[in-house]
Amino acid sequence: ALGQQTRNMATLKEIQTRLKSITNISKITASMKMIASTKTTRAQRAMNVARVYGKTSGDLVEQAGVQKAESANELLITVSSDKGLCGGIHSSLARQSRKYLAEHPEAPLVVLGDKAKMQLQRAYPQNIKSSFNQIGATIPTFEESSEIASTVLNDKDVVFDNAKLMYNKFVSAIAFETSAMEFYPISQIVESPNFKAYEFQEDVLTNLNEFLFANSLHWALVEGHAAEMAAKRTAMENATKNAGDIINRLTLQYNRGRQAVITNELIDIITGASAL
Amino acid sequence: MTFAWRTAGMNYLQYSSIAARALRRVVKSELKTEIAKREGVSVKYAKWTNGKAGASAPVAIIETRPQAEN
């Protein structure tokens, strides 16, 4: 009986240690949730602004009635980030990207963000033309999107007409949806029936093409960032809730264990006393 | 009618970046704190060849002369 008591004491110590560490974890996840909440509100505001610019390019394409050329080269750009602890954000992007690459095995790939890069370099390393990181810590500025777009456009090894931007669309504070944004080059917009009616200077069109590309990329980056912050908030909220559940369960177990030890000690004492 | 900056080797995005930077430099000091966040690119870029990543380097920005002290 003494041996069992010591063993129970040891288990009690273990439970106590676990309780302490889980309480710490729940404090950390709770504070991470707070931070992610504030970041989400700010990111959402930036997203609404970026959407206006992005929608304008979208409207242009729609009004012109653009058709994708049959033999067009399409570039896949996966817009993710470097940071984790945000639920299914990165794996969803990687899954959709892999699906696209399975259907278009020759397509060039540009990856934004380390998390997606790690997943995609395992499956399709030969398709990757370039990767960018140090993304996702702050709300993307147009300067950043512009630099990324400029680097991709200047890259001689990446030849593309159309681009598909795989990003996470912000559906609501608790839901996101991985979607593909289409980018149509100016060469295709110019061939569209409604555009053909007008005269244009070649140079201005090249400028517009570059600007539209940066615009689309910026929209994908900002909306992706907002979706990620919201997902992080939800993930941290769930983590805190789960930690709380474990704390309750362990506390009950601890108390029951403690009471068992006391009861056993009492039994020993009483049996000992009655033997006298 | 080719733009001068295009002949010099810049693309439209680099050109508008420089113009935006110049504009930010002449903003009055009270508003400078607000707009400082829009500058400062720290994105890193790595070129991949044959399934292997090359060295990572900061994205190329065209440096402009720092603002002259009055």
From TrEMBL, chain A:
Belongs to the ATPase gamma chain family. Keywords: ATP synthesis, CF(1), Hydrogen ion transport, Ion transport, Membrane, Mitochondrion, Mitochondrion inner membrane, Transport. The gene is ATP3. The keyword Membrane applies. It comes from the Eukaryota. InterPro entries: ATP_synth_F1_ATPase_gsu, ATP_synth_F1_gsu, ATP_synth_F1_gsu_CS. The lineage of its organism: Eukaryota, Fungi, Fungi incertae sedis, Zoopagomycota, Kickxellomycotina. GO terms for cellular component: mitochondrial inner membrane; proton-transporting ATP synthase complex. It comes from Coemansia biformis. PROSITE patterns: ATPASE_GAMMA. One of its GO terms (molecular function) is proton-transporting ATP synthase activity, rotational mechanism. This is ATP synthase subunit gamma.
TrEMBL record, chain B:
Gene3D superfamilies: ATP synthase, F1 complex, epsilon subunit superfamily, mitochondrial. CDD domains: F1-ATPase_epsilon. InterPro entries: ATP_synth_F1_esu_mt (IPR006721), ATP_synth_F1_esu_sf_mt (IPR036742). One of its GO terms (molecular function) is proton-transporting ATP synthase activity, rotational mechanism. One of its GO terms (biological process) is proton motive force-driven mitochondrial ATP synthesis. Coiled coil: none annotated. GO terms for cellular component: mitochondrial inner membrane; proton-transporting ATP synthase complex. Belongs to the eukaryotic ATPase epsilon family. This is Mitochondrial ATP synthase epsilon chain domain-containing protein.
